[in-house]
Structures are given as C-alpha cells and as structure tokens.
Task: structure prediction
Amino acid sequence: MYRGVLTIGLLVSLAGCTGGGPTENASIDSMPVTNAAVAGEMIFCREINRRTTRQDCDDLTDTASQAARGTAAFNVPPMTRGKSTMIVLAISLEPPPVAEDAAGGAAGNFADTAVTPENASAAENASAPVETPTTAAMPTPRPPHPGFKGAAPADVVKGLPGETEQYSPLVGRDMRAELIGQGFKIEPRSEASQVLSPGSTTSWEWEVTPLRGSNYVLAVKTAVEGVMANGTRVVLRSTVETRAVNVKVAWYDRVRDGLTEAPDWIKLVTGVLIALAALFAAWWKLVRSAKGEKVEEAKPEAKKE
Result:
C-alpha cells in the first residue's frame, strides 16, 4: 500500500512539471514581439519636438547627450568685391585645451602647508608668517586620442590666406556645417553632412564671392546630427561662430560704379537744361514783343493734295 501511494505521488509531480513547460516557453517566445511593439510605438520626442518612434527617440536622445566640445579652425581671408576666395573649416573630435583643476591645486597647497603636532610650537613662536609665492594655473592641453594621426584643425587651415580663427564647437560622429552671410555668393565645395572619425580631422570648403563692398558678417554654423532608422538626419545640437569681414573695392570697380550711375545724372542734368532753355525762349519772346518787334511764328505747311 505504501508503494502504491508513493507511485501516485510521483505521477502527480511529473504531471505538474509537464504542464508548466509550454506556458513558460510561450511567455519567453512572446518577449521579442512585445519589445518590438514597444520600440515601434509612436511617442512625442522632446529632443526634436515632434512625434517619432520610441526607438528613434531613444537613439536621438542618446546621441545628443554624447555631444561634447571639440576643436575647430577656419580662415578669414582678406576679400575684394567680385573676387572669389576659399574658406575652409576643419573640425576634430579632440577636446580643447583646459585649465588645470583649481581644486586639486588648492588641496595640494593645503597639504604642503598643514601644521603638524611636531612643528606646532615652531609655528607659534614664529615672529611673522612666511608667504609662499603662488602662480596662476596655466592651460594645458588634454592628452590626444591614442590613435590620433591627422593634423590638428589649426594646422590644416594655417597655410591658407587670412587669419586662422579657432573655437570649440559641440561635436559628434555625424556633423553638418554651413557658411552663411548676406552680401556674399557662397558656393559649397564639399558635402554639408560628414562623419567625424576619432583621430582625424574633417574639412568643409566654400567658395565665397563678395557682391558689395563694406563691412559684413560671415557665420559658420555647425550642428551635431542624429540619424533615424529610415536614414533621415535631424539637427540635435548646434554652434554658431561669427566673424566680421571688411570687403574692399578696387579702383576700377569704383570707376565702373560711377559710369553705371552716370545715366541717371545725365538724365537729371539734361532735364534741368531743357527747362532752362524753355524758360529763356519764353522770356526772349516776351522782350521782343515789348519792343514792338514782330515775332514770326512758324506756320504749319499746307497739306499737299
């Protein structure tokens, strides 16, 4: 009897184990489907201020959070109206130079000047405190990327005409750069969207032709882009750097401008002379009439039959 009860118990246990298997496997199999549905759910993405899939929003937000300061340089050449010149922008993912940590330096100075029990009495007997000279923290460049092999942005631009301007824009893997300015004809010579690789420098080029002579402003706009699942690029973080440009006008262009504007002056002077001539003719006719002279008037010719 004891063996019969034991056999029945074993059968019941086996039945319970066998029944739970399919349910557990079914839940595991349904997990990828659930995750895919959540990733494809349409939500309002605050990063780009529009609706998109949850997966795209997560990717764009992550890309934006990884944007950091890099190094960039571009040339500002002297310009003359009507003459084209090249402006080159070079950008690298390398971080800009930073100052040493002031807190760390202060902690080191405090440790050096701390009063220990052994020299406490000497410090009290000292007639006057001894001041140690301090120096300001100097900017030191961060160590470059281990695989950095390309030239720095400033080195790429320094051989070009004009002054080399350096700044620190927000950078990421996918970048977009534009050159904007009123009074200029700007023709890009490179793709607006390019990929930055660690350890290298990427360049953008524009051919710029001033259309008028005066002081104008050129703006370099760079932006970190995010790429959605369908390949659409979205601007996430942007930086704008402006520089004033003095556009000169050659002497022959000034002469040309004078000749171009001459017809208007000629028309004005001609109109004044005609008015004066008509006034003088009327006055002369009046004078002759007053003296009794007969003023001959032109008679119209008879029409020939």
Q: What stands out?
A: Helices lie at 2-39, 54-65, 102-113, 120-125, 153-157, 251-290. Residues 69-98+141-249 form a domain with the Immunoglobulin-like fold (CATH 2.60.40.10).
